[in-house]
Amino acid sequence: MSTTVTLAISPALPDDELNALFAASWPGHRTTSFAPLLARSLLWVAARKAGRLVGYVNVAGDGGLHAFVLDTTVHPDERGQGLGRQLVRAAADEARVRGARWLHVDYEADLTPFYASCGFRPTAAGLMPLG
């Protein structure tokens, strides 16, 4: 029997939990302190299964109508079950509640089907590399 995944909006997330999730999910992840990032976030959504952090998405805001999806992350053991979509949709719903009217996301081309399934549509945008 599978264990239920629970979502929480902006719960306390210790660095060790986030670093463990990112290390499992993102090759080359380096241990970091997430406190400064979370302090500037509009919100984040965490997913837990049997008490273990298995998913995360961050939403940064501009202080006005625009919000930005960042770092959508699902543990490799939990992928392919719709958890990423649940995270992004919960983030979108909460961003709307907090006053955002536009939700932006940047992604690699291979993630187009995933973000389309979350409700995003392509738009023209600009990108300037800074480093």
Tags for this entry?
single chain, alpha+beta, Aminopeptidase, five-stranded mixed sheet
Q: What report would you give on this structure?
A:
This protein is of the alpha+beta class. It has a single domain (5-117), classed as Gcn5-related N-acetyltransferase (GNAT) (Aminopeptidase). It contains 4 helices and 5 strands; from the N terminus they run E-H-H-E-E-E-H-E-H. Strands 1-2-3-4-5 form a 5-stranded mixed β-sheet. The longest helix has 15 residues, at 83-97. The protein is globular. The relative contact order is 0.16. The mean pLDDT is 95.
Write the layout of secondary structure elements.
Layout lengths: L4 E5 L5 H11 L9 H5 L1 E9 L2 E10 L4 E9 L8 H15 L4 E4 L6 H6 L14
Parallel strand pairs: 4-5
Antiparallel strand pairs: 1-2, 2-3, 3-4
Task: Produce a short descriptive summary.
The protein is an alpha+beta fold and 131 residues long. It has helices spanning 15-25, 35-39, 83-97, 112-117, and strands spanning 5-9, 41-49, 52-61, 66-74, 102-105.
Domain count, please report it.
Answer: 1
Name the CATH architecture. Answer: 3-Layer(aba) Sandwich
CATH superfamily: Gcn5-related N-acetyltransferase (GNAT)
The chain-level mean pLDDT equals 95
CATH class: Alpha Beta
Shape: globular
- The termini sit apart by 48 Å
Number of helices: 4
Strand order of the largest sheet: 1-2-3-4-5
| Content of β-strand | 25-35%
As a percent range, the share of helical residues equals 25-40%
> CATH topology, what is it called?
Aminopeptidase
Largest sheet: 5 strands, mixed
Give the beta-strand count: 5
Radius of gyration: 15 Å
Poorly predicted tracts of residues: none
Q: What is the multimeric organization of the chains shown?
A: single chain
- The string of secondary-structure elements, in order, is EHHEEEHEH
Class derived from helix and strand content: alpha+beta
